[in-house]
Amino acid sequence: MTKLTTGAFLIGILAIGYFTVVQPASAVAQSLDELATGCAGCHGENGVPIDKTIPNIWGQNRSYLLTQLLDFKRGHRVNEQMSPMVEALSKTDMEALATHFSKLSWPDLQQPPVPDDVKAKARAILNPLNCRGCHQEHYQGDMVRPRLAGQQDDYLVKTMTDFHTGDRKTYLGMVALMKSIDEADIKALGAYLAALKLPGHIDQPH
Is 201 one of the annotated binding-site residues? Predict the structure, then answer.
């Protein structure tokens, strides 16, 4: 074996060793089904989350889902469950997951009915703030804003409270709006929005 050939051989061996030993396990590609199954551990196999403070993601707007995954990946949002889950995801993985879940039917989370006085209170708060200007007429969201209608009550309350206190700062407009609301009124908003259904739309039973 010549000196040049020997050198090339050694470089090849070192390269193989690097990719075998140094490359992390996360570099192994997972199928979309495998990735989605990991999400189901918290968000529910049938679209109904295992905890009321966890959001429904079935049928949620694609761009919003992708933005949230990217925010967790970049550390703009921190959550003890979500942050480790997205650490190994590529942008392609996140785009595939956002597309997958956005195409699923929004589940019926069986939110409790809201008394008329709570409805009136919520509307008196939401209408002057023109929340439908961003979240649309029926709170169905748009290309970048999430659907709020029919979302988990406790999740909505927690999210609005986090914006109110400044614990969540990913949308400065929301921080300003929620700070203008008394924290004691946020529960009424969550109950009202959670009980809304989109006209002509039947949520899937779980």
Answer: no
Residue 39 among known ligand-binding residues: yes
Q: Which of 130, 118, 129 is nearest to 185 (CA)?
A: 118
Ligand-binding annotation for 76, yes or no, is: no
pTM tops 0.90:
no
**pLDDT value at 25 more than 90:** no
43 annotated as ligand-binding: yes
Say how far apart CA 60 and CA 43 lie, in whole Å: 12
* DSSP output for 56-107: P-TT--HHHHHHHHHHHHHTSS--TTHHHHHHT--HHHHHHHHHHHHTSPPB
CB 86 within 8 A of CB 78: no
**Can you tell me the distance from the alpha carbon of 12 to that of 109, in angstroms, rounded to the nearest whole number?**
56
Q: What is the pLDDT of residue 37?
A: 94
Q: Is 131 annotated in some ligand binding site?
A: yes
Confirm if 80 and 178 have CB atoms less than 8 A apart: no
All domains in the chain, ordered by first residue: 31-102 (1.10.760.10), 116-195 (1.10.760.10)
> What secondary structure does DSSP assign to 114-160, as a single string?
--HHHHHHHHHHHHHHTTHHHH-TTS---SSSPP-TT--HHHHHHHH
